Amino acid sequence: MTGTTPRGANTEQEASRWVRGMFGRIATRYDLLNHLLSFNLDRRWRTRAVERVSEILARPDARVLDLCCGTGDVLLAMERRRKCMAFGSDFCHPMLIEARRKVASPLFEADALMLPVADGTFDLITIAFGFRNLANYRRGLEELRRVLRPDGTLAILEFSQPSNRAFAALYGFFSTRVLPWIGGVVSGSREAYSYLPESIRKFPSAGELASEMRAAGFGRVDFERMTGGAVALHLGHKAD
Ligand SMILES: C[S@@+](CC[C@H](N)C(=O)[O-])C[C@H]1O[C@@H](n2cnc3c(N)ncnc32)[C@H](O)[C@@H]1O
């Protein structure tokens, strides 16, 4: 379990540069394609993630970071429930420009593997569909653990592999045949929407990700599957 490996990228730096460039190219079409290709389920997945951390969001003194915030949809989903300060961060400038149009939260540009943030800053870090793209998962988890307060919460919402065989076959067909075609036509970047199913296929299973979180120093780790296992939400807490 190292990190994402887009085709043609031979080092972590190259993988990271490729991911940043790719999101930069699709930023203006990202929201439309997200809703279209997920049949709008993406909104429901983020809402569920926000519900699970709503107790923290309701605390006026809590500090929250939505990492890999992209165009800001998690921040948007938090808005109604949130009584505390929430920041957004991403390393792709064009995605942050889109987010700026939608949310008032403070945003900053940074690599999730090297956050310009002091140790123990946040009570909650959320990361939706961003973790899979990190060039090194273990380093990512260690960095998130570093910037969380003791007992702070990490919520990772990410694609996963459906468990039911019939659904997995259908999902496989849709994600490898239909999705790259529609994504390519609408965004103009077929490689971005070919990378998506490939990166999902290579990503660890929900159980493996939970083990990796425990190994990186998170306790009380649990996960729930959504939409037949196509998506999983992991929660963990910074353990001593
Ligand atoms: C699939 S988008 C998800 C955006 C948003 N969280 C959502 O729910 O729609 C993944 C985002 O992760 C960002 N990202 C990937 N690797 C990153 C890294 N190492 N540091 C910061 N952001 C990263 C990308 O720039 C992109 O905006």
Instruction: Quote the average pLDDT.
Output: 94
Quaternary state, please? Answer: single chain
Radius of gyration: 17 Å
Q: What is the tally of beta strands?
A: 7
* Neighbour order of strands in the largest sheet: 3-2-1-4-5-7-6
As residue ranges, the low-confidence spans are none
β content, as a range?
15-25%
How would you sum up the major sheet? 7 strands, mixed
Q: Helix amount, in percent?
A: 40-55%
SSE topology string: HHHHEHEHEEHEHHHEE
Can you tell me the overall shape?
globular
What compounds sit in this structure? S-adenosylmethionine
Secondary-structure class: alpha/beta
Q: What count of helical segments does DSSP give?
A: 10
Give the N-terminus to C-terminus distance in angstroms.
23 Å
Keywords:
240 residues, alpha/beta, seven-stranded mixed beta sheet, 10 helices, 47% helix, 21% strand, globular, binds S-adenosylmethionine
Summarize the structure.
With 240 residues, this protein is α/β, with parallel strands linked by helices. It has ten helices and seven strands.
Topology (SSEs and partners):
Blueprint: H1 12-26, H2 30-37, H3 41-52, H4 54-57, E1 63-67, H5 73-78, E2 85-90, H6 93-102, E3 107-109, E4 122-128, H7 137-147, E5 148-159, H8 165-187, H9 190-202, H10 206-215, E6 218-226, E7 231-238
Parallel strand pairs: 1-2, 1-4, 2-3, 4-5
Antiparallel strand pairs: 5-7, 6-7
Bound molecules: S-adenosylmethionine.
S-adenosylmethionine is lined by residues 16, 19-20, 23, 34, 68-70, 73-74, 90-92, 95, 111-113, 128-130, 133-134.
Structural notes for this entry:
- By secondary structure, the chain is an alpha/beta fold.
- Helices cover 47% and strands 21% of the residues.
- It is built from 10 helices and 7 strands.
- The protein has a 7-stranded mixed beta sheet with strand order 3-2-1-4-5-7-6, with helices on both faces.
- α8 packs antiparallel against α9.
- The chain is globular, with a radius of gyration of 17 Å.
- The structure holds S-adenosylmethionine (SAM).
- The site of S-adenosylmethionine (SAM) has 22 residues, from α1 and α5.
